[in-house]
């Protein structure tokens, strides 16, 4: 029994048989609130919303262009030409672009992290990332610079559609689902917005396709 099933079973035992219903079925039956009608140009809307959240956004025709775009971004900002990436991105031609990439989870001293994204959400300019052995969450959370690659065809309109897509494509939920809406920020100190307080100072989103 998984931890999730164990927790739900314990809740059902305390609350009685009526509470021990299939959670996913209950969610699907639950009536949703109003969902806005969005423009069909989801890539354009996603880019605009992401920029408003202080992310940098650029586009690539194919995934093979990604290393060159990353190299240009790092050079323009005088950032280290090395970093860590999700294993799935290790096969890209980083060396020819002049970047040293290690496909592994990030450590505290890694300054650049490169990830994919499960989906982009146009309504808010948000990235949806799933944790897993091949998609370590630390790569997007620990480095000062987070670079995310998302396919144009995997940009959906709303958060509701994102969760629907996750359930259809993956079935069981992963251990963690992380939503990234621009660089980390806080206004806890004297209500002054500070970037990078709990994560990356900067975010570059590369939309492929």
Characterise this structure.
The chain folds into two domains: 1-31, no CATH class; 38-208, NagB/RpiA/CoA transferase-like (Rossmann fold), CATH 3.40.50.10420. The strands form three sheets. A six-stranded parallel β-sheet has the order 1-12-7-4-2-3, with helices on both faces. A four-stranded mixed β-sheet has the order 8-5-6-9. The protein has helices at 3-15, 23-29, 42-52, 66-76, 138-141, 159-170, and strands spanning 56-60, 82-85, 100-103, 112-115, 119-121, 126-130, 145-151, 155-156, 177-180, 185-186, 194-195, 202-208. It contains six helices and twelve strands. With 209 residues, the protein is an alpha/beta fold.
